């Protein structure tokens, strides 16, 4: 059976890293933090408040895909914290040899802005939030994307865990219509 890849995706401040850490520990999967694979120049650019270009992101995506392909070759399942804002990036992640589920972590803009302001020791500048929302391409028609909305971390993790259990057990996850499932609480 092809190992699973659970991608915790969304804009900066959505809770990707925290959710990925919890899910990786709970399901005994390898954790990959895509932020750690950014070049120093990308981190400095974002820290200065400048949005990354597609050219800036290309080597980063290659590094992420190399890690995922290595996991696939070794039969290792993973949880990836990755923005996956663009459809093309989601397609790249799907092509790495792992059975993929995207958990799109969503929250109101005000909640995310507050989280970004409260962060310490992170290169992502809160001023870039608008550019993150602008870069987020719709996931409509992507059956392997589940949007989870919860203000409370416990509720979010309960939703995410249930989806991961279903995905691992059944091999796929779709709603009744075969389209992405959205869960709001």
From TrEMBL:
Sorted UniProt keywords: ATP-binding, Kinase, Nucleotide-binding, Transferase
Enzyme superclass (EC): transferase
GO cellular component assignments: cytoplasm
Pathway, per record: Carbohydrate acid metabolism
Molecular function via GO: ATP binding; gluconokinase activity
Family under the similarity heading: Belongs to the gluconokinase GntK/GntV family.
Name of the protein described by the UniProt record: Gluconokinase
């Amino acid at each position: 059976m092809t190992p699973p890849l659970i991608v915790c995706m969304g804009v900066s401040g959505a809770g990707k890293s925290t959710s990925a850490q919890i899910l990786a520990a709970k399901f005994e999967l390898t954790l990959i933090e895509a932020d750690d694979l950014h070049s120093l120049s990308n981190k400095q650019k974002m820290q200065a408040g400048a949005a990354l270009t597609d050219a800036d992101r290309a080597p980063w995506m290659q590094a992420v895909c190399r890690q995922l392909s290595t996991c696939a070759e070794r039969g290792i399942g993973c949880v990836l914290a990755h923005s996956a804002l663009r459809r093309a990036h989601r397609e790249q992640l799907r092509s790495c040899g792992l059975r993929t589920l995207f958990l799109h972590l969503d929250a109101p803009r005000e909640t995310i802005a507050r989280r970004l302001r409260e962060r310490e020791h992170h290169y992502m500048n809160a001023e870039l939030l608008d550019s993150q929302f602008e870069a987020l391409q719709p996931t409509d028609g992507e059956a392997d994307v589940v949007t989870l909305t919860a203000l409370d971390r416990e509720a979010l993790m309960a939703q995410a865990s249930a989806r991961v259990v279903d995905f691992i057990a059944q091999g796929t996850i779709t709603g009744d219509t075969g389209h992405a499932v959205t869960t709001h609480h």
